[in-house]
Amino acid sequence: MTRPLIASAARIGDFDERSREIFRRIVETYLATGEPVGSRVLSRQLPMQLSPASIRNVMADLEALGVLSSPHASAGRVPTQAGLRLFVDGLLEVGDVSQEERAGLLAQVAGSERNLETLLGQATAALSGLSQCAGLVVAPKRNAALKHIEFVNLGSDEALTVLVHEDGSVENRMMKTPPGMTPSALAAATNFLSSMMRGRTLEQARTEIEREMETHRAELGELTQALIEAGLATWATSEKSDESWASRSLIVRGQSNLLEDVDALKDLERIRQLFDDLENKRDVMQLLELTKDAEGIRIFIGAESKLASLSGSSLVAAPYYDASRKIIGAIGVIGPTRLNYARIIPMVDYTAKIVGELLRHAHG
Questions:
Q1: Which of 131, 145, 207, 228 shows its CA 20 to 30 Å from the CA of 214?
Q2: Cα(238)–Cα(257) distance, integer angstroms
Q3: Which pLDDT tens digit goes with each residue over 100-137?
Q4: Which band of pLDDT confidence, cut at 50, 70 and 90, is reported for residue 8?
Q5: Measuring CA to CA, which residue among 41, 9, 5 is closest to residue 22?
Q6: Are 22 and 150 contained in the same domain?
Q7: Has residue 192 been placed in a domain?
Q8: Alpha carbon of 14 to those of 65, 72, 87, 96, 149: distances in Å?
Q9: d(CA 161, CA 235)
Q10: Distance CA 111, CA 89 (A)
Q11: CA-based nearest residue to 60, from 41, 77, 84, 83
Q12: Would you say 201 and 239 are in contact if contact means Cβ atoms under 8 Å apart?
């Protein structure tokens, strides 16, 4: 059987009332059962009086548009990927998170420690449990204050900068050193920067470092000044590259939920590949990074993601914000394409709001 063309030209506004209602019923029934929907089932559901033959004619027209397909020789139809996208964009009536679910999410997340990793892990686990999907979250860029900084000479005009943060995390960054660098200049730069940056982030300390360099220019010496300036320039470049989410942490919970809907060997192989992609994180992070350009929820259905392992899955994600309304991360779920979108979309949105609020409170 050839696959129908992606129905890029199909629009809900072009459907008459009968076609729209039949299409809606097919998609909703499929999302609930996962089974092809036949004309006899529809004839009992529809509010209008239509014979099975008339319904089959409409179904054939919808299949020709590429929004339905016949998985077997039977008369039953299922929505295509394009059909699901059309439904989500044009017909889906999004529900709301129940008071019980809101209370459960808030209790599980707010009850966690104020440790960032723990808070995000709890939020992701809670979302995974309620949605019965795999939950995932992109952690915000770490911006802890510095405790110590040290330059380690690697020779060949290179040095390793070791940044030790007050939260115990350590960053190692390579940098080019000025020609003729000496151990005494490295030690002087280490002492100067450690005294200036202790208890502050690099961004907070940068202006004062530049001002103090002017004041103590004679004491520091040319090589030490050159090293500090080279370090500041390198870190500024690193900070800009850190705007990409590829270097951030991806926390995943509930991967086993992805196995619940697997009923064929090819699906199992695809899920294994998805597990590998989640472990390697790079491609998934690039996908989640697209939420930065979205006004709220972002939904990828099947092959829309351009990620082969997600060809039979959907990703629903929402960004979360800091106090200045800057997007600092994203949280979402991965599940089969026949997700209960009406329930899961508001659930992801609500969890993103909780996470943003708790992080703002924790760092306020």
A1: 145
A2: 37
A3: 989 888 888 876 556 778 889 999 999 999 999 999 99
A4: very low
A5: 41
A6: no
A7: yes
A8: 11, 28, 13, 29, 64
A9: 10
A10: 36
A11: 77
A12: no
Question: Rounded to an integer, what distance in angstroms lies between the CA atom of residue 6 and that of residue 33?
Answer: 24
Single residue among 217, 241, 265 that ends a domain in this structure: 241
Asked whether residue 229 is domain-assigned, the answer is yes
Task: Let me know whether 137 and 163 are in one domain.
Answer: no
* β-pair partners for 253: 135
Average pLDDT over the chain, rounded to an integer:
84
What span, in angstroms and rounded, lies between the C-alpha atoms of 178 and 230? 8
* pLDDT band at residue 62 using 50, 70 and 90 as cut-offs: very high
Largest CA distance in the chain: 94
180, burial (CB in 10 Å: exposed 0-12, middle 13-18, buried 19+) = exposed
Q: Is the pTM of this model over 0.85?
A: no
Q: Which residues contact 192 (CB under 8 A, 6 or more apart)?
A: 212, 216, 220, 224, 228
The one-character DSSP state at 14 is G
Backbone φ, ψ for residue 34 (5° rounding): 80, 5
Q: What is the DSSP string of 136-179?
A: EEEPPPP-PPEEEEEEEEEETTEEEEEEEETTS-EEEEEEE--T
Q: Residue 220 and residue 257: Cα distance in Å, rounded?
A: 59
Beta strand 78-79 with 134-138 is: unpaired
- Backbone Cα Rg of the chain: 27
